[in-house]
Amino acid sequence: MILHDYWRSSAAFRVRIALALKGIEPGxxxxxxxxxxxxxxxxxxxxxxxxxxVLEDGATALTQSLAILEYxxxxxxxxxxxxxxxxxxxxxxxVALAVACEIHPLNxxxxxxxxxxxxxxxxxxxxxxxxxxxxxxxxxxxRMLAARPGPGPFCLGAxxxxxxxxxxxxxxxxWRFEVPMEPYPLVRAVVETCLALPAFDESRPERQPDAET
Length: 213
Fold this sequence. Notes:
With 213 residues, the chain is α+β, with helices and mostly antiparallel strands. 52% of the residues lie in helices and 8% in strands.
């Protein structure tokens, strides 16, 4: 198994967490997004959108972090990253999708570059855009956690799920852009619980071999 990765990619961060939780140590290939390596023909052949991650498992090349997490759950089901009850599984997926579909697409690297280069926003305006959509999304997730269908200390239950694997990288992005986190005590509690586990802690961006100082 080979993971095509970039240290600061929150989508790749999700997959690193899931692999670590399942005790899988893939080979690593690093795709430097700021140098444009994602647009090279060899990478585009694996990921037509020119993004990371890509997970190669034998002859199978998988893209899109949520699809990869579901694949890992189906092919390596222990330990499970989805609850047993259908309603709880759907709730966990909803949190994961709130991050992957509602928050992250509005503030990933290519969107921020477009705002600067095509719409001529300066750094301050770009960061306001970022902070606005992150706050909107984290506020919604805070409300979801307040109404969750069971106890914590993770997003749902006593063990981490794909919801946690998605939430932690998004909070790391919020920290990076200095988005105030005080309004989200439940989110902060979940992240603190997650980072106490080696699978999350060792998947941090700054701990990756390709991390830049």
